[in-house]
Design goal:
Blueprint lengths: L1 E6 L3 E6 L4 E3 L11 E7 L2 E9 L6 E5 L14 H7 L7 E8 L8 E11 L4 E4 L11 E2 L1 H12 L15 E4 L9
Parallel strand pairs: 3-9
Antiparallel strand pairs: 1-2, 3-4, 4-5, 4-11, 5-6, 6-7, 7-8, 8-9, 8-10
Length: about 180
């Protein structure tokens, strides 16, 4: 089934029900918002947005953590596994939330609180990792620009500074590009 979701950032988007990710506990600071979907632009597929279904103003920029730390692996606790209804052998996808201030050279990613999606069941959870070596505000500008530069070898129309002309569309979270 399809639904039209009105958003502040992306306008109206038609979303398939199977593309909705349900967060039993919401996101940190947004516990009342349970359903999200991933939005991408064909002009800049590295930057994804986790858009709330229920609040048009709430969308979190997310990226794959391997851009910032190649060996990054968030290991779910038993509580995380329960929230994700994760069973042995089920695939997950991990994202980190990006903060993009007006001065893009100061953008950061939160490596300590990744978003994990159970690809089999469409359930998501924002985990809080206890690893003291992980940063809540890891500088991201240089690594992100390198990733965009490598992508732009194939796409000469990428402009990270402007998203005005981007064509935004929902993404099947199971098919989000793999890094590596």
């Amino acid at each position: 089934m399809k639904r039209i979701v009105n958003t502040n950032r992306f306008g109206s988007i038609e979303v398939q029900d199977q593309h909705i990710i349900h967060f039993k506990d919401g996101m940190v600071g947004f516990v009342q918002l349970k359903d999200y979907f991933i939005v991408e632009s064909s002009s800049l597929p590295l930057l994804l947005w986790l858009q709330s279904v229920d609040n048009p103003a709430i969308a979190f920029p997310v990226v794959e953590p391997a851009f910032f730390q190649r060996d990054y692996k968030a290991v779910p606790t038993e509580a995380d596994k329960a929230r994700l209804e994760l069973e042995v052998g089920e695939a997950t996808k991990q994202f980190v939330v990006m903060t993009i201030p007006e001065d893009m050279t100061k953008m950061t990613v939160n490596m300590k609180a990744p978003v994990v999606v159970n690809l089999e069941k469409g359930l998501g959870s924002q985990m809080i990792l206890q690893d003291k070596n992980l940063l809540v505000r890891k500088p991201a500008h240089e690594a992100f620009n390198k990733a965009v530069a490598s992508l732009s070898l194939d796409h000469d129309d990428i402009d990270v500074e402007s998203e005005e002309d981007f064509n935004w569309s929902p993404v099947d979270y199971k098919g989000v590009s793999q890094v590596g």
